[in-house]
């Protein structure tokens, strides 16, 4: 009886661990701190690391969110990414953007094509 109870507990723990969502892994070419020269946004940055995305005046102080899913698909000749992410309070968000790999890459929000984000050069 004790062995069955122990196995049941282990099985329950395994099921809980299996159901816990692992943050989505971000493609390496999207990683970095992104900036724009668009009016009204020049003092803002967007950062993307392997499991988080953030927005703010600095990547160090940006509001940070956990990436829960990343979808990549083609929309015409463009590469569209839809990033699903959530805050600490579990509020869910989505950001759709086009990624162009030319040069060091650019990101353009799907709903704000006037915002062209470029990767900030690494400090030397």
Please tell me about this protein's structure.
The chain has 124 residues and is mainly β. It has one domain. Helix content is 15%, strand content 46%. It contains one helix and eight strands. The chain has one helix spanning 2-19; strands at 32-36, 45-48, 52-56, 63-75, 78-86, 92-100, 106-109, 112-119. The chain has an eight-stranded antiparallel β-barrel with strand order 1-2-3-4-5-6-7-8. A hairpin with a 5-residue loop joins strand 6 (92-100) and strand 7. The longest helix is centred in the first third of the chain and has 18 residues, at 2-19. The radius of gyration is 19 Å and the shape is globular.
Return the average pLDDT rounded to an integer: 82
**Amount of beta strand:** over 45%
Cα shape: globular
* Counted beta strands: 8
Tell me the number of structural domains: 1
Structural class: mainly beta
Q: What ranges have pLDDT less than 50 throughout 5 or more consecutive residues? A: 5-21
The N- to C-terminal Cα distance equals 65 Å
Helix content class: 10-25%
Sketch the topology as an H/E string, one letter per element.
HEEEEEEEE
Spatial sequence of strands, sheet with the most strands: 1-2-3-4-5-6-7-8
Q: What is the tally of helical segments?
A: 1
Largest sheet: 8 strands, antiparallel, barrel
Radius of gyration: 19 Å
């Amino acid at each position: 009886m004790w062995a069955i109870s122990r196995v049941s507990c282990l099985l329950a723990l395994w099921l809980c661990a299996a159901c816990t969502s692992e943050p989505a892994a971000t493609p390496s070419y999207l990683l970095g701190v992104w900036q724009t020269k668009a009016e009204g946004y020049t003092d803002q940055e967007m950062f993307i690391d392997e499991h988080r995305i953030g927005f703010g005046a600095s990547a160090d102080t940006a509001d940070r969110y956990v990436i829960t899913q990343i979808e990549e698909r083609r929309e015409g000749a463009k590469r569209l990414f839809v990033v699903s992410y959530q805050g600490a309070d579990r509020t869910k968000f989505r950001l759709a953007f086009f990624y162009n790999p030319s040069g060091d890459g650019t990101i353009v929000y799907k709903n704000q094509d006037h915002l062209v984000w470029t990767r900030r050069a690494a400090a030397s």
